[in-house]
Amino acid sequence: MNTDVLNATPRTVSMPTDTGWWRDAVIYQVYVRSFADGSGDGTGDLAGVRDRLGYLKELGVDAIWFTPWYPSPLADGGYDVQDYRDIDPRFGTLAEAEQLIEEALALGIRTIIDIVPNHISDQHEWFQQALAAGPGSPERARFWFHPGRGENGDEMPTDWVSSFQGSTWTRTTNPDGTPGEWYLHLFTREQPDLNWNHPDVRREHEDILRFWFDRGVAGVRIDSAAMPVKDAALPSLPKGTAAPGDHPHIDRDELHDIYRDWRAVADEYEGERVLVGEVWLDDAERFARYLRSDEMHTAFNFDFMTQPWNAAAMRASITRTLAEHEPIGAPATWVLSNHDITRPVTRYGRADSGFAFLRKRFGTPTDIARGTQRARAAALLVAALPGSLYIYQGDELGLPEVELPREVIQDPMHFRSEGVDPGRDGCRVPLPWSGTSAPYGFGGTAWLPQPADWSTYTVEAQRSDPTSMLNLYRQAIALRRSQADFATGELEWLELGADIIAFHRGDNLISITNLSATPVPLPAHHEVLLSSAPLGGVLPPDSTVWLALRESPERSDGAQQ
After folding, report:
1. Taking the model in full, what pTM does it have?
2. Average pLDDT, whole number, for the chain?
């Protein structure tokens, strides 16, 4: 741990005091390593982000969510955190992070950071101390060290399954060279799980929240939020579906006490600091518990993101999502992709257009033209729904997933699948900003290779094209801000056909998405606000249109124009 930063005085940051900003915010996800390279070494950094804040202001976002920017060996793209109170030197310094937070706020853009409570890096000082201290030590009590099963302790302590495929336990070696205890890691072996029954672990994370809130951070995205607490008895996985709260390491009831404590920390600060959970749960009632008024503010909606290009499936997911959130008054979140998910342009162009990690394979055919048409339509569909909207960097440019050569892949999911899964690096290829050849204005030679045909995807090329994906996103975000019904209007379904998703927002706005194979006529309207494709009097297949029934009143809540 960098002890210098513990004694450093954070910048004095003037936080906006508007409440509820997060309820319909547009939040842009920055994967720092691939956003923009300010130093010229081929790795994205904070200097690159600061240089591009004007771009994000023009796009119209309310907040930036940064994936982990802390010191890390990068065994899992930064989600193996070595020190939560510093910035990875490849990205910059803590002082630069403070300056970035302040500069973004001056533009009306808040900052949300990632916290990973389930595990840390095996290079974190706590874990290094635990390895050195040996069995039965207080240092090891912060983790899940355990003797193995079998006569010689050669078998893993549990049959638990890794989120990354492969084993969930790694055996240590004693100082004399003999096999030692095993330690638990639900992800890679370089990411040992923390023991949340230990008071040190709880106290440390609350201190980390205060460290960053003191520096002007507006919120925290909680990675794998349903996984940190484990059953100390280490039982076998249930056969079939576990009873609610009985899974040994997912959605344990004890989690809610932790997040209540985190909410209490957030509520100590002005400017409404928010907690955003990454919660993958099928049980609607269990999911809603995380969004009670004294826990998290919002949680990611993975259900919609994984649906295929199918009207019935998508509409059912929207209905399900809104029903989950309605009893507790929490806003839904709408996400098409993130740093883990195959990009929409590629996904929607495939025969199987849904998403599941275990279905990812090399060489899967995709129709990029069709996928792009559908991704444009999906962008308007989710932007019209009530709640907050998340945009993963590059989706606003219509970037496709890149199928990388095996020799450059770094993602552990690829290796732990024994090379079957191409992993997640294909959606993490650095962004193209300008020019006609790599690195397309990114900076130095990019840490992952950019395709040779990306010149038409650059920000520079799309800015001047009124029909580009970038300008579609800009217009959609601007209309979300300016149209009163997008802020306050309830959703009411319109029945226009089995393959059509159509709804009112309030009494003036209509969104229609045509997922059929034929054009559909437009209902009577006053004005076309925006469409994902040329209309010609009808809505083409794989397209979305926003209609105003009469002249639209503008928002009066002080939203940024």
Report:
1. 0.94
2. 93
